[in-house]
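Task card 7
Instruction: Convert sequence to structure tokens.
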Amino acid sequence: MCAQPAPARQWRVSPALPALKLTGAVALLALALLLDGGDRIQLTLAVVVAAALAGWAARDLVVPVRLAVDPEGVTVVQGFAGRRRLPWAAVEKVTVERRARLGLSGELLEIDAGESLHLFGRHDLGADPAEVAEALHEARPR
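Output:
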């Protein structure tokens, strides 16, 4: 009996995350306007930070899928809204890096493709990086 190829899977940003970022941008602008007091530097800084938050949210809306896998390889997000296809032959290693910083611990999924390293956190994937790494290992042809 022949083994069935693994179906394509993808991991994406949670829809709540860009909504939260946009809400933060609007709240920051509202707060800056409310507490303006004639300080143009404070208002300008608030507008710049709100624009950065809105841009970050726009990326989440334009490219919600951060990682996809199929029997031929993986597709990763690259740059602001680009994608890069990595055939399995180019993927050297898939690991989960655990780090503790400032009293908080976090996990990053690392996909090492030789000349490039692709990092994904829990919020990028909408899932636990260890579970995604396991799914990638299972999808990789032997």
